[in-house]
Every structure is written in structure tokens, then in C-alpha cells.
Amino acid sequence: MLVDNHNRKINYLRLAVTDRCNLRCNYCMPENGIDFSKKNALFTIEELSRLSGILVSQGIDKIRITGGEPFVRKDLIVLLRDLTKMIGLKDISITTNATLIGPYLKELNALGIKNINVSLDAITRETFEKITRRDAYDTVYDNILRMIAEGFNVRINYIVLKGQNTGDILPMLALAKNYNVSVRYLEEMPFNGGSRHFEANAWDYKRILSHIKEAYPDFEEIPSEATSTSMNYKIPGFKGTFGVIPSFSRTFCGSCNRLRITATGDVITCLYAQPCTNIRDILRGESSGEKVKEQILKAIGSRAKTGFEAQQQHQGTYTNSMTTIGG
User: Fold this and answer.
1) What is the pLDDT of residues 93-105, one digit of tens each?
2) Residues near 309 by Cβ (< 8 Å), separated by ≥ 6?
3) Given a cut of 60, is residue 194 above it in pLDDT?
4) Is 174 helix (H, G, I), strand (E, B) or coil?
5) What is the dihedral sign for C-alpha 231, 224, 89, 92?
């Protein structure tokens, strides 16, 4: 079992398999992209499988596959097959932009990988294309509807962006009205890869809730897991739910159970912290299993108590894109 220096049990790994993405969302990276890592700097699928096994042996029982866009890696399904065979791993989930997942849905269903988070910041075509800078609207929505029809547990992650998509906040709730999905609104974060200046969050979770309440005053809060980052709600008559994630306000730090490892091996103990070590070369060396365990224990043993404390440790300057951090 992994327990940090604040007595929080760490059982959830967010594992990035690539820093590449086929979209160019304007809050995430510049229009021409970023300097992506060279292939030999990324973990191989075999290395990702071995690393996952090591972490599971230390008490990780939930792994979320992230990116970049995970399905940019055409061999991702090999890793997912390996993960489903790991004893002690109870939950495998994926965060995706839903552009490339279509051909894999049948096998994902067969493997029992049912929990899919879709990063989607607009319900209208014009807003979608303005934010993503790509023409993938039909593909994304077709794949979402297919996942719903095929019984996946779909959650929509919608980052609220001042001056860009606030007009889509209420229309997006139509998905929760008509389908058993969860639409979750996130506060904007400063991890934009230098695509634009970030000063403050104009739409915090309180404002988002207030905006929804004007249209749906009767929504009720529903119970959430103690480690949940989202506060979740039900609107009478809706098949699904909605939630808000205070990703910039960081009200959930006290129950944080997450560890992040990037596609190049950086270990990140808090979304707002700098990497505390890199385990890629260690994993590729001799006696790698025990040495990786040592580094993970060391990282877990020196976590910041909150995201604000982590931010203060490096003066709150961010040049990374979310696509390199892994979300």
C-alpha cells in the first residue's frame, strides 16, 4: 500500500502513454503544436506494462490511461490487454478526445474496459472547431453516441473557457437529459503550453453552478466518493447527471489519491507540482523493479499537502501543456 506523508492512501495512477494529440485545442497548446518527445524518449508498450505491474504490486488498483490522445498510439490495445490480466487492478479507464477510439470499441467492451472520459468543450460545431482547430465534430459525436448505445460509462469533461464556450454550458446538458451520461464542467487551468497568457479563472465552480441554477433551480446534489474531484448533481427528469470540478480552486486536495507518470517517465505527485523524479532510465536498467519501487516510495513520501503548496514551491510558473502532463 502506498501512503503519502499526509497519511493519504495513493491507489490511483494516471498513466500517460504519449504526449501527442491530433487536435490543437487553443487552451492546451499553440496552433502549430509543441515540441513532442522523440520516440525513444517515450516508454514502449512493454515498458508501460511492466511499470503498471510494479505499481499494482505497490497497491495501485485503479489506472487511467491518458495522453496526449492515447489512441494516437496504434499499439495501445496491447497495453490494455495486459492491464486486464493484472491481479489486483480493479479499474481501468481511459481519457480520450473520441476522435480515434471508434475502431477499438468492440474489443474494449470485450475486455471490460467500460469507463471512458471524453474531453469535449462544445456542443455546437462552430465552437468545437474554433477550440480544437480541427474538423472532427461528426466523428466525435458519432463515437460518443455509439459508446452510449453500447453500454459504456461515458463522462464528458468540459473545460469552461471565458469568451469561448460559455454559451454551450446549458446546451451541453442536453446529453445528460437524453442519455445516462455525466457532463462535468472543469475550471480552466494554467497548463496551456504557452498558447496564451493565464491570469485568473473568470469561471470558477461557484459561477458555473450559479449559471446552471438559473436554468435548473431544482437540481440536487448526489453522493460522491470521498476521493472524487467532482461535486455531482441531478436535475429532475434527466437520465444522466452533471458535476463541477474545482480544478483551479482545488477544494479536493485533502482526499487526493492520485499519482501521475508521464509518457517520458516523469513522476508527478500533484498536478500543480513539478516532476520530482524520472524513472524511464531506471526502468530500462538492471534491477529495475526494486529501484522503481524505491523512487515511487520516495516521491510519495514528500508530497505537497495541497495544490497551492505545490504551486508555491516553484513560484507558480507553468510552461507545460496539459498534453505533456497527462491530465
Assistant:
1) 999 999 999 999 9
2) none
3) no
4) helix
5) negative
Contacts of 33 (CB under 8 A, 6+ apart): 24
- Cα 128 from Cα 287, distance rounded (Å): 48
Residue 125 CA: distances (Å) to CA of 120, 128, 154, 163: 11, 5, 20, 16
Domain 2-325 classified CATH 3.20.20.70? Answer: yes
User: What letter represents residue 157's amino acid?
Assistant: N
Residue 211: the pLDDT is 98
Inter-CA distances, 74 with 71, 77, 80, 141, 191, Å:
6, 7, 12, 21, 26
Q: Is 166 exposed, middle or buried (0-12, 13-18, 19+ CB in 10 A)?
A: middle
The residue behind cell 513520501 is 301
* Integer Cα distance of 100 and 65 in angstroms: 14
Which residues, 6+ apart, have CB-to-CB distance to 112 below 8 Å? 84, 92
- Nearest-Å Rg of the Cα atoms of the chain is 19
Q: Find the mean pLDDT for residues 22-32.
A: 87
Domain ranges of the chain: 2-325
Listed residue (155, 126, 143) closest to 71, CA to CA: 143
Which of 49, 42, 52 lies closest to 73 in space, CA to CA?
Answer: 42
Kindly report the pTM of this predicted structure.
Answer: 0.94
Cα(first)–Cα(last) distance of the chain, in Å? 24
